[in-house]
Amino acid sequence: MHIVVISGSVREERVSHRVALFMQRAIAEAGHTSDLADLKAYDFPLFTERLKHQKQPHPGAVGLSARVLKADGVILVTPEYNGGYPASVKNVVDLFTDEWKRRPVGICTVSDGSFGGTQVITSLLFSLWKIKAWVVAHLPVPKAQDTFDTEGNPADAAVWTKRSGAFLKELEWAMEARRRMEA
Asked: Cα separations (Å) of 19 from 24, 116, 160, 172?
């Protein structure tokens, strides 16, 4: 199966991107393919209209749309900023409609504190549910600056292999269920 990993932070020195790099490797180790969509590289303009209604859409938005539509699932890696998620994540959530519908989504919330971005999950879930995304798994990542190095290598590989494995199993189940329902 194929999973798109969306790295949601566009900040300088972003720590959540380390988690996105780790998840990409975890997906490969689980026997799937993946594709890293880095919102910092896309540099989307602020949301003005859903992609399908834009007369001259940003080429990157069209490309990301195609990548998400072809994927069996999506992992959205988002930092927590002041108890919420960043504008870059809200932008991409609102940009798409058909791309999210019934798509299995796993969310990694990331913070430098001990709660692992859990404050952001409620507001993000509401937005994704509203547009009919199928959110099936949540992986909170606390103290990410100490947990992963800049290349996405975990300080405690055994712990993060186990945690990401359980997270991916939930996403795999949903992707397979969706595949069977659409067959």
From this structure: 9, 12, 10, 19
Structural domain for 94, as ranges: 2-182
Q: Which residues contact 62 (CB under 8 A, 6 or more apart)?
A: 51
Do residues 118 and 149 lie in contact, with contact meaning Cβ atoms separated by under 8 Å? no
CA distance 26 to 34: 10
Non-local CB neighbours of 154 within 8 Å, separated by 6+ positions: 22, 147, 148, 160, 161
The closest of 19, 67, 48 to 8, measured between CA atoms, is 19
Q: Which long-range contacts (C-beta less than 8 Å, at least 24 apart) are formed by 124-130?
A: 124/76, 124/78, 124/85, 124/89, 124/93, 127/90, 127/93, 127/94, 128/93, 128/100
In the chain, the number of structural domains is 1
Closest CA to 121 of 143, 105, 99, 97: 105
CA separation for the pair 175, 102 (Å, rounded): 10
CB 8 within 8 A of CB 128: no
* pLDDT single digits (tens) 90-136: 999 999 988 999 999 999 999 998 988 899 999 999 999 999 999 99
Q: Are 67 and 35 in contact (CB under 8 A)?
A: yes
CATH number reported for the structural domain that contains residue 9 in this entry: 3.40.50.360
The structure's pTM equals: 0.95
